[in-house]
Structures are given as C-alpha cells and as structure tokens.
Amino acid sequence: MRVYVEHNGGFEPREVKVRAFSDGRAIVDGMPAGTRVALVNPESRGATKKKESSAPNPTLASKTQ
To answer: How many distinct structural domains can be found in the chain?
Structure first.
C-alpha cells in the first residue's frame, strides 16, 4: 500500500505492508513507530489551510523488523 509520509514540511510517497487496521489506525511494516502519514496525498488536493476540525487524525503504528 502506498502512504504519504510527512517529511521536510511536505509529504513523500512510501510503500508499506499493512499488517492490521481498524477505524483510524493501522499497523504497518517498514516505518518507525509514531511516523505521521496520510493515506492520500494531501498536497494533490491543493489544500493550503490546516485542517480546522477537532477530530483526531488517524495514526499508523509501525512494527519494525
């Protein structure tokens, strides 16, 4: 699965293996724990404003090998 990792003020695409997921969370291989990611490229939407919602952002947990 391709995800977009927050890096240097932007997002970079990375391939990861999803081991398990639920609403708002996923466990993946190949990323350090706590890495902030997006499931779609936020930069492709042309969004320049920060999200104004108070809803929590989904988090991907990582199982490092």
So the answer is: 1
